[in-house]
Structure formats: structure tokens, C-alpha cells
Amino acid sequence: MAEVVDVICWHPYQWEVAPEESYPIPYKQEKKSPYPSYRAQVAAIREAARRHGFKGDEYHANETTWVSPYPAPDIGVPGGPVSEMTKAKYVARTIALHTDMGIPVYYNETWNTGIVLWDVSLLRATHSADPQSPVWPQPAYYSLRTMATLTDGVSPRGYAAEVRELDAPYETCRLVQADGARLFGVWQTQRAEDLCTPKPARIIFPDFVAKKVVGIDTLNGVEQDLEFRVTSKGTVIKNLLVPDYPILLRVSR
Known about the structure:
- By secondary structure, the protein is an alpha+beta fold.
- It has 2 domains: about 1-150, no CATH class; about 155-250, Immunoglobulin-like, CATH 2.60.40.
- About 15% of the residues lie in helices and about 25% in strands.
- The chain has 3 helices and 13 strands; from the N terminus they run E-H-E-H-E-H-E-E-E-E-E-E-E-E-E-E.
- The protein has helices at about 40-50, 85-100, 140-150, and strands at about 5-10, 60-65, 105, 155, 160-165, 170-175, 180-190, 200-205, 210-215, 225, 230, 235-240, 245-250.
- A 6-stranded antiparallel sheet has the order 4-6-7-13-9-10, covered by helices on one side. Strands 5-8-12-11 form a 4-stranded antiparallel sheet, with no helix packed on it.
- Strand 1 (about 5-10), helix 1 and strand 2 (about 60-65) form a beta-alpha-beta unit.
- Helix 2 packs parallel to helix 3 (about 140-150).
């Protein structure tokens, strides 16, 4: 069958991962995953596909989701429940991570039409009650919109980038825009919290001479020009504050 298949896809929320992993939504925490990371799981899928004769190069991650019901139900829900703010952070994380692996990712669901107690929606489930509109966006709506805008037209590239002095486990994404500017993301990978203390890091792009570096907050799209130095080692950004959701650097010549 693999030889006649054009696309292989999976539901990311069903994968078992350690709490500190960059796709932190343990679906069945009582079981230990045989894979050290979500990236390793994806690599295993690709290898198994090739081994069974898959000749395509398209892999899709559909039905990525988090649940943020309020008040939280007593029943079990996949990977949660989480707060609306942490849900927004996980949405930004998973888009950054999958884009770095060259995998289109889809959110499930835009509007909660399924299990209401799970509240997987990007919009608040107010059951059409006045005076609040039933289509009030959750924070996840804005982080998804921001990430979709930022990653439009980008391609994953494995260019050299170093993260130093960051006292926390972290993940990165390395992308390039259509105009050639680099889009580099970094974030802490422990379980997200509503209030996370960002930690400073030194970012180095070896052998790359930048003329401008812009920092982008992926929760709300705010951009800020950053100070940097060009040394014999390349472009250096000092004291970048890294939270538990992606901060993107647009680095251009």
C-alpha cells in the first residue's frame, strides 16, 4: 500500500512524550515512550514509510489540539486540561516545531463542535449566550494567526546557530523567508505556565554578517529591533530573554 500513497499523516496529540519535550502533551502518561523526543518519533515514521516503499515526500500532522475548558471537568482529557494562555503557547510551539521539520500542521478544531467538555476550540464555547459573543477568540487564536503569518512562504534550513548560556532545556527552529532573511526561533521546553520567567541566552550565527535583527513575540506579533554585534565569530545577540513559547529572530543581511 505504501507505494501508492501520496501523503502520510498522523495525529500529533496521540503521541506519548516526556513532560519536558517540545511537544508536551502526554496522551497516556502511564506509559513510557520508546522514543527520546517527538522529533525522534517523526524520524521513525519517515524511516518506516521508506522501508515499506513510500516514494512520496509529504508528511502532514493533522488534529493537533489542546483542551482548555473552564471550569475544568472531572473527567480525563488528553494532555490536560490546560489554561487558555498555555494552550496559546503550545500552539505556537507546535507550529514552529513542525515547520522546522517541513511538515504542514493543522489545528483541530477551529470551532468546538465535538466534545464540549474538552474545549479544543480556538474560540470560547459560550453556547451562544448573550451578552458575550460565542465567537470570542481565545489567546490560541491569536498565536495561531501570528505563527501562520510569520511562517507563510518560509522553508526549513539547517543553518548554523548556537544557543549559549540558557539555563533551561530548549528547542529551536531554523527557517528562511522567501527574501532570504533567516527566521530563527528558540523557546524553553518545560511544561508551559501562565507566568513563565524568561531566561537570558546568547545567540550566535557563525559566519553570518547581519545588518538587522528583529525580535518577534509569537503570542501577539509584537516586533522589536534588537541590539547585536558582528564579531569574528559572526552575528551575536546577547541577553535574549527566552520564555516557554517561541521567540523568533528575523536576521537579515
